[in-house]
Structures are given as structure tokens and as C-alpha cells.
Amino acid sequence: MIEALGNYVLVFYLNHDKQIEKDIIRNSFSLISDQVQPIKQILKVHRSYIINLSKVINIETKNRKSSVKLKFI
After folding, report:
1. Do the beta carbons of residue 41 and residue 52 sit within 8 Å?
2. Which regions in the chain score pLDDT beneath 70?
3. Disulfide check for 12: which of 1, 16, 37, 57 has CB 3.0–4.6 Å away?
């Protein structure tokens, strides 16, 4: 998962031991979004979030608001 943080992005990923790690990268969210757009399993789901569709467990919608539950997060 990638989350926008102003002029930075917060990247969540699984390391070799299947543990969640996160790194902050000084880069624009729009640039990252453009770079991962060709990858079919990666999707921008909100103006501040990009997710890996292969990690989606559940999608819920209540009162016109949706939430996505991801494996490991």
C-alpha cells in the first residue's frame, strides 16, 4: 500500500520474512501513481492511496463510504 503524505509517500511492504515494513520516500504521490499505473494489480483507489489488488480481503460500503481491508494491514 502507498499513502500520500504531502511531499512524501509512505510505502508499506512485506519483507523477506513476511513482516510488514514501511518507508517514507520523498517523492510526489502523482509521480509514484504514474509509475505504477501500467501494473495491472496495482490500483489507485483514492486520491491518497494506492493498493495491491492481490492483497484485498474485503470491500465494505456503508452510507456511500467504502473501506478496503488488506491482508497483513
Report:
1. yes
2. none
3. 1
For the stretch 24-49, what's the b/e string if a residue is b when 16 or more beta carbons lie within 10 angstroms of its beta carbon? Answer: eeeeebeebbeeeeeeeebebeeeee
Q: How far apart are CA 55 and CA 44, in angstroms?
A: 14
* CB-based contact 68:59 (threshold 8 Å): yes
Query: Which residue's entry shows cell 494506492?
Result: 50
Q: Enter the pTM of the model.
A: 0.83
